[in-house]
């Protein structure tokens, strides 16, 4: 999973454009390279000029000049994969009902492995 890291933000600051980040449910101004000197945490200033420390992994959007970039756009750019857009369904094509997959959140890793093997064997018998 990609995130807006220190180096990415510094590149925008080097272009001498206004840089704002959205983290912890508010926008922060990044004024100079010193705000991004720590590789784990940055410092941003709210609308009242108060400084706030934020984790780079908490940034969900950045505003560079007048353009806004989201974390989803960063993921798409870094992976090179386009977002899958749902195809419009036509009335002629009906999908068969899908089986509900079991919720695996409450299983321990051993049980998840057993579920995967069980599913593999079941699909192998079908095909």
In a few lines, what is going on in this structure?
The protein is built from three helices and six strands, in the order H-E-E-E-E-E-E-H-H.
Note down, in words, how this protein is organized.
With 127 residues, the protein is an alpha+beta fold. The chain has a domain at 6-79. The chain has three helices and six strands, in the order αββββββαα. It has helices at 6-14, 71-79, 109-126; strands at residues 19-23, 26-30, 41-45, 51-55, 59-64, 67-70. A four-stranded antiparallel beta sheet has the order 2-1-5-6. A two-stranded antiparallel ribbon has the order 3-4. The longest helix has 18 residues, at 109-126. It is elongated and about 65 Å long. The mean pLDDT is 79.
């Amino acid at each position: 999973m990609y995130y807006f890291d220190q180096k990415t933000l510094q590149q925008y600051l080097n272009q001498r454009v206004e840089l704002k980040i959205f983290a912890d449910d508010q926008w922060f101004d990044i004024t100079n390279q010193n705000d991004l000197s720590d590789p784990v945490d940055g410092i941003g200033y709210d609308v009242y000029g108060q400084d706030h420390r934020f984790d780079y992994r908490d940034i969900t959007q950045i505003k560079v000049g007048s353009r806004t970039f989201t974390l989803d756009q960063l993921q798409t750019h870094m992976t090179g994969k386009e977002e899958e857009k749902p195809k419009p369904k036509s009335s002629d094509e009906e999908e068969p009902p899908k089986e509900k997959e079991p919720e695996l959140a409450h299983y321990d890793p051993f049980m998840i492995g057993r579920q995967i093997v069980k599913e593999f064997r079941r699909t192998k018998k079908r095909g």
